[in-house]
Write a structure and sequence with these properties.
The protein is mostly beta strands. 6% of the residues lie in helices and 40% in strands.
Length: 216
């Protein structure tokens, strides 16, 4: 929930949603008919492209909550919008009755190729939110630091929780996204352990715990 009390796009991942106003997405000639007032689609996370919207079409919402799709993407076509296009639109989840009236499954079959269940617990760590990349909820920034070396801030894609250390830090296995400027013994694409926990002042303590030990 945002500071204004409005539901955020990040809270509606893996759900069918309405986004208002559809005109802000500037779909132009991408739909066969003039766009309706609301975008209708399914929100999900693409590992490489971030939060995305699989567009069903655009439509209107009646006073009784009935959703009418007035311009629909062709059955053989796919229209995918990325987070930067709709990040400022007002999101609302479709209710079960609205979804049923449109003949939509709760979860579409194609989502299986994008799901990473092991990341779900990491996404629920709200105290990590200040470190996340906007539109990429699995990408977090952390520091590489060691005595005698200049600290560096880098990015990593979180893959799974790896327990806690003796000091109560949560250990997160990440894939390093960018090449460090110094020799830390790890490189872009390597799996590393990041240690993190909320600080008493509302911030987050986060740092590099080393490469992921080889699994036997």
């Amino acid at each position: 929930m945002s500071g204004t009390g409005q539901t955020t796009i990040e809270e509606l991942l893996d759900r069918w949603v309405l986004l208002f106003p559809a005109a802000a997405a500037r779909l132009g000639d991408l739909l066969p008919d003039p766009p309706g007032t609301h975008l209708v689609g399914f929100l999900y996370v693409d590992l490489h492209a971030g939060i995305s919207l699989h567009v069903l079409g655009t439509g209107t919402v009646g006073a009784d909550g009935t959703v009418i799709v007035t311009s629909r993407v062709g059955d053989r076509d796919r229209l995918i919008l990325r987070h930067v296009v709709f990040q400022n639109l007002e999101p609302q989840a479709l209710t079960a009755s609205q979804r049923g009236a449109l003949g939509l499954p709760e979860i579409p079959d194609w989502l299986e190729g994008y799901r990473r269940p092991e990341t779900a617990p990491i996404r629920r760590l709200a105290w990590l939110d200040p470190l996340r990349c906007p539109g990429y909820p699995d990408d977090i920034r952390f520091r590489l630091a060691r005595r005698g070396m200049q600290a560096e801030v880098v990015w990593g894609t979180a893959w799974r929780l790896a327990g806690e250390d003796a000091e109560g830090f949560t250990l997160i296995e990440c894939e390093l996204l960018n090449e460090p400027n110094q020799d830390w013994g790890v490189h872009a694409g390597d799996r590393v352990l990041v240690r993190a926990k909320p600080d008493t002042d509302g911030g987050v303590l986060v740092g590099f715990a080393g490469p992921v030990p080889a699994r036997s």
